[in-house]
Amino acid sequence: MTLSKAASLCLLLWQLTGSGGANAVVFVSSEINTTPAPDNFSICFDNSCQSISQLALSDDQWQGIRAIFLPGSETAGEERAMIGKAVARLEQIVGPMTGTENDKGLNKSSDNPAGHRMDCIDESTNTTTYLYMMQQDGLLKWHRLRDPVTRGFFFFGWPHTTAVIEAREDHSLWAVDSWFYDNGLAPEILPLEQWQEGWRPAGS
User: Fold this and answer.
1) Maximum separation of any 2 CA atoms in the chain, in Å
2) How far is Cα of residue 183 from the mean position of the Cα atoms in its chain?
3) What pLDDT digit, counting tens, does each position of 12-30 carry?
4) Residues 172, 166: contact at Cβ < 8 Å?
5) Domain of life, per the record (predicted)?
6) pTM for the whole thing?
7) Nearest-angstrom CA–CA distance, 83 and 73
8) One-letter-per-residue 3-state SS of 40-75
9) What pLDDT does residue 20 have?
């Protein structure tokens, strides 16, 4: 992907999702299934959704995701931990389907030259898809899905995008950022305001 195309996608996201306040979930490509379900959903890869695969999970695979949320959470914090585990498990399942199982965090090169990579646009789009499916299946008791949010835009640092959830009780917004770590590891879930200030994991 050329820098200009990547910049255009980031600008589009920045314009559409900068407030995180839209009611409808915004996706970056018309080829992405905007009403994903476990038996019919899209996955982005190869940087800024240059490649998109249409996938389906088996009943057993989705039951495994449901099991992560049992017997249920008593607090929003407990549910966020469950969300992190569910996103990680979905990446583990989907990785071999798309050749992204060796994707490295922070856009690092994979040891497998034939493997596909994912940047923050891919990661935030896919995480939003996963969260949408969880929400539609009634797995999210304490949170609702919001639009992805982009921080920075060259003037304030390199653009970076994350999936976002909102706590139903106090309306606090939380970044769900799977880009920092290798495929199949739990995403960072932290207050969106802190994330927007440029937060990164220690040592990254």
Assistant:
1) 48
2) 12
3) 443 334 433 334 455 667 8
4) yes
5) Bacteria
6) 0.84
7) 11
8) EEEEEECCCCCEEEEECCCHHHHHHHHHHCCCCCCC
9) 39
Fill in the amino acid letter for 117.
R
Model pLDDT for residues 137-167, shown as the tens digit of each residue = 999 999 999 999 999 764 445 789 999 999 9
Q: Cβ(162)–Cβ(176) under 8 Å?
A: yes
Both tokens assigned to 197: 């200030």
In the block, tokens 């992405």 appear at 32
What gap in Å lies between CA 80 and CA 165, rounded to an integer? 9
Q: Are 119 and 126 in contact (CB under 8 A)?
A: no
12-17: long-range contacts, CB 8 A cutoff, minimum separation 24? 13/121, 13/148, 13/150, 13/159, 13/161, 14/150, 14/153, 14/159, 16/147, 17/147, 17/148, 17/149, 17/150, 17/161
Handedness of CA 166, 172, 178, 184 (dihedral sign): negative
